[in-house]
Amino acid sequence: MLGRVRDWFGFGPMTEGFSGHGHDHGDGRHGHTHGVIDPTIATTTRGIWAIKWSFVVLAITAALQLVVVFLSGSVALLADMIHNVGDAVTAIPLWIAFVLARRKPSKTFTYGLGRVEDLAGIVIVLIILFSAIVAGYEAIDRLIKPRPIAFLGWVAIAGLIGFIGNEAVAVFRIRVGREINSAALIADGYHARTDGFTSLAVVLGAIGVWLGFPLADPIIGLLITVAIFAIVWQSSKAVLTRMLDGVEPGVIDEIHHAAEHVSGIGRVEGVQARWIGHRLHADVAISVPHAATAKDVLGVTEALKEELFAHLPALAEANVRLLSPAAPAVTGAETSGAHHHAPEPFKVACDLAAGTLEIVDTPAGERMRLTIDRHADDLTATVFIDRSGGPETIRLEPVGDNHHRLESTVAPAEPHEFRARLVLIAKDREQVLRFKMVEPEGHHH
After folding, report:
1. How far apart are alpha carbons 349 and 422 in whole angstroms?
2. Residue among 381, 58, 24, 367 at smallest CA distance from 177
3. By C-alpha distance, which of 17, 21, 97 is closest to 312?
4. Residue partners of 230: CB distance under 8 A and separation at least 6
5. pTM given for the model
6. I want to staple 33 with a disulfide (CB 3.0 to 4.6 A). Which of 140, 235, 273, 408 is the partner?
7. Residue 287, SS3 per DSSP
8. Is 144 exposed, middle or buried (0-12, 13-18, 19+ CB in 10 A)?
């Protein structure tokens, strides 16, 4: 019996195990926020379906309560109705985001319009804030100027309707959450179950008025208003964090955990992540042992991406960068004119690509750049420079949306006179082009 009670409140065995390192979690903690849809729900069709039907049930519940609010004048019921509206409208930013996310990226909005969800979240938080202020004003006004409440029986029934509506949503979300193994949806279900008790508080207020304590109604309304203000505070922090490219610390921890599953990674040099709507974009910089071959490096990169997508269901894009070993220190004498001794470019001509590979000056410093006239689909390019201490690995990535320009994120180490291999891979095809870069006469070290 005690186990059933624990499970009903969300502490039973069916909810355990979602905070560990599984393959369907973000940070292991899922707060109850309005205006932000948890990505572990939004990434599954079944989860979206559950949110939509939860919206319908809570909207009907709030509409029925609204009718009784106008008939009775109960401020406790008004506050509970606002609370249920807040729960229902969390589906709105998801709907807006999915409609706009269907639009293809443009030259202006290169990442698409996923951030519209964040703007919708801000609007919803402001609406709930305004409603909470109205409810709080009405409750305080009713405390100062008590007025009789009509239709006490209907007020109690409306409170019960609120409880039943929240309980129905709770059962529905928990059941679907367990079907799709979504900790977030299960947590939302238990939050809806807890919210049902605010509706039962309305019933308690109606009983208090019926027993001759007219202030019971505004007091209950004020307590519910305080709960709504707490929701506004929590939700605004979540929305603003997303808008400022913030992520939950657990997301970064999960990326590091995913890398632990991949053999061949020397170390994770850096991790960056941000939300665009309810989709996660991650940038991971890694280093590999000096003895790694081109095939080893590409295998490690692909394996890491697979682990990232498995550990983070909301992940839309993973960019894995290879960082070369640190370049030797450059003395002051060598620094002068260091950016003016670029080697002669290497002309690339093979089945997979044709273009020019060169070392160029950029605002961020020297970079290795491959400018492509033509290339095969899904082309990747990696340069392996022969060094006395082991190969220097430089991965070339597309610059923005320009797939005809691939550029490194770090400068090749000095000296810029070396023998190297350019490894081009497109799907199942691979070509290795050996080349030598020689500094112009008069610029040798």
Report:
1. 11
2. 24
3. 21
4. none
5. 0.58
6. 235
7. strand
8. exposed
Contact between 230 and 195 (Cβ < 8 Å): no
Cβ neighbours of residue 358 under 8 Å, at least 6 residues apart?
342, 343, 345, 346, 368, 369, 371
> CA distances (Å), 368 to each of 361, 384, 388, 407, in order?
9, 12, 20, 6
Ranges assigned E (strand) in 242-391: 267-276, 279-287, 315-322, 346-349, 353-362, 365-375, 379-385
Q: How far is CA 337 from CA 84, 341, 363, 443, in A?
A: 68, 7, 16, 9
Per DSSP bridges, beta strands 315-322 and 279-287 are parallel
Average pLDDT across the chain, whole number: 79
pLDDT (tens digit per residue) in 57-83: 988 999 999 999 998 989 889 888 988
Q: Which are the contacts of 418, defined by CB distance < 8 A and separation ≥ 6?
A: 385, 386, 387, 412, 436, 437
What amino acid occupies position 302?
E
Side-chain half-sphere of 424: how many Cα atoms within 13 Å? 22
- Segment 387-403 shows an average pLDDT of 82
Q: Tell me the CA distances in angstroms from 339 to 206, 274, 351, 359, 439, one per residue in order.
A: 80, 34, 33, 10, 12
Cβ–Cβ contacts within 10 Å for residue 89, how many? 20
Q: How far does CA 410 lie from the centroid of its chain? A: 27
Nearest to 319 by CA among 306, 307, 309, 305: 305
